[in-house]
Amino acid sequence: MPDTPDPTKSVPDEPPSSPVSTDKSLRLGVSRPDLPVTDLPTPEEVFGVRRIGPKELFKYAVGPSLIALGISIGSGEWLLGPQAVGQFGFEGVGWVIVVSAVLQTFYNIECSRYVVATGEVPVVGWGRVPPGWMLWVPLSVLIVIFSFIVGGWAASAGQGLYALVHAETAPDGAEEPRLWAIALLVVVFLITAAARRISRALELANWIMVGTILVGLLLMCLFIVPFGIWWDGIKGFVTPAAPPDGITATQLGGLAGFTALASGLNWYVMGHYRDKGYGMGHKAGFLSGMRGTRVQVLASGVTFPDDAKNRALWKRWYRLLLTDMWGVFFVGAMVGMLLPTILMARAVEISGQEVTQANVPTFVASALDAEYGRWLFYIALLMGVLVLFSTQLGIFEAMVRVTTDAAHASSPRLRALLEGDPRRFYYPFMLVLLVIIGIILHFALPVSLVQWSANMSNLGALIYPFMLMYLNSRLPRPARPRPWHYVILVLNFLFFGFFFVNFIADFVGDPLVTF
């Protein structure tokens, strides 16, 4: 099928060209095929427009970071951050949030750099790192599944939906919130099944949810939060301070891990740049929904030559990536953390009650109900459900996506069995995962499940920054990072790695550092 984009669609639904035919190739790493070398497409070609101006930027090019932001404004922003602020205040907590968000944004860019330059999603790219795919690909899938399958985000969304339906918080051990959580997982399945192009459906869903969340929270905070709490929150974000007395390594590590996205495991979302068609992702294919045309997804990536034409095109794609990450993801993550935390601080102030793991999903709504009336109770609950469902949508889909991409790229036998259609793996696996998560939801409090996931995310910071250094240093010269980018990756390792090691030490005995 031709590679001509359809200007009537925000992202062309046509599959990319057949596997690239070229006499040139680039050897990158070990145990994976060489990358064919061909020209980068232009952004106009990919997005089906005559030029990329401000209107076209937001209408067509922005998107992958919005999916990441939808996940970001979730467990950390609605649960862990507000819980920490509600218990300990802003001082010593806020600066951890900012440092985490800055480091994660840089890390996201480095993960996405590889995707844009090769069309390979990170879980496939890890297979090029010595000793090869037989170690890194299955291990990476296992780490992602192990980190997120506990489903704390789903359980918390179920609690919020129960309160929204019944106008009261759920009693301890109630079964109905778990059933609502499972129902929301089914909704995720239906959204992806109804899509023509799965990434595009996730973008549209997050435009609606994230927009509603940020506008709704801003109006609530302007209405009920005094200026003094606004100032305390902003000052706490920019003032370095020692962690507050009494906060545990698990709490602080969870806050660091789930501020912005998922620290060392952020790579599990960056594959959407391939599906969006960024750079060489346009040549590699995308996961289509049940309503979409079957699209060939290349088992191995493609890259570009180092010449004047492609150097200029790479700079354009890289600028789009930076705009998407800093302008949407970072700004959204900061606003998305500030607003819920100052709202929680106000709720603690007016209620005089203590925030706990058990009550944090509905604490704000209950406090506002007592002070301002039922209408604000319902609005706060709705915001909470949207926040947690946006996380649920992104995480659940990403676990399925990562596993599908890994299996499809690694097994020629599976590709033959699927007859070139990854959907035949994607949707059955999603149903299996739905059943497993539904069972796990019954075994722990939602926030404790979220803290587990967040600290497991920090584990990724001990591994993947160095793997990125290996891969990105071998990209075509125009796409290689500058030396200071490697320094940022090392800082990710030190910052998030510290919290993971301290979490493990605390789990098995005494933490390395007590606060």
Protein architecture, described:
The protein is built from 22 helices and two strands. It has 515 residues and is mainly alpha-helical. Helix 12 packs across helix 20. The longest helix is centred in the middle third of the chain and has 44 residues. It is globular and about 70 Å long. It starts with 24 loop residues before the first strand and ends in a 7-residue tail after the last helix. The N terminus is likely disordered.
In short:
With 515 residues, the protein is an all-alpha fold.
**Helix-strand category:** mainly alpha
Radius of gyration: 22 Å
Helix content: 55-70%
Q: Enumerate the strands of the largest sheet in spatial order, edge to edge or round the barrel.
A: 1-2
- CA distance, first residue to last residue: 61 Å
Largest sheet data: 2 strands, antiparallel
Low-confidence stretches: 1-19
One letter per element, helices H and strands E, the order comes to EEHHHHHHHHHHHHHHHHHHHHHH
Shape: globular
Number of helices: 22
Strand content: under 5%
Overall mean pLDDT score? 86
The strand count comes to 2
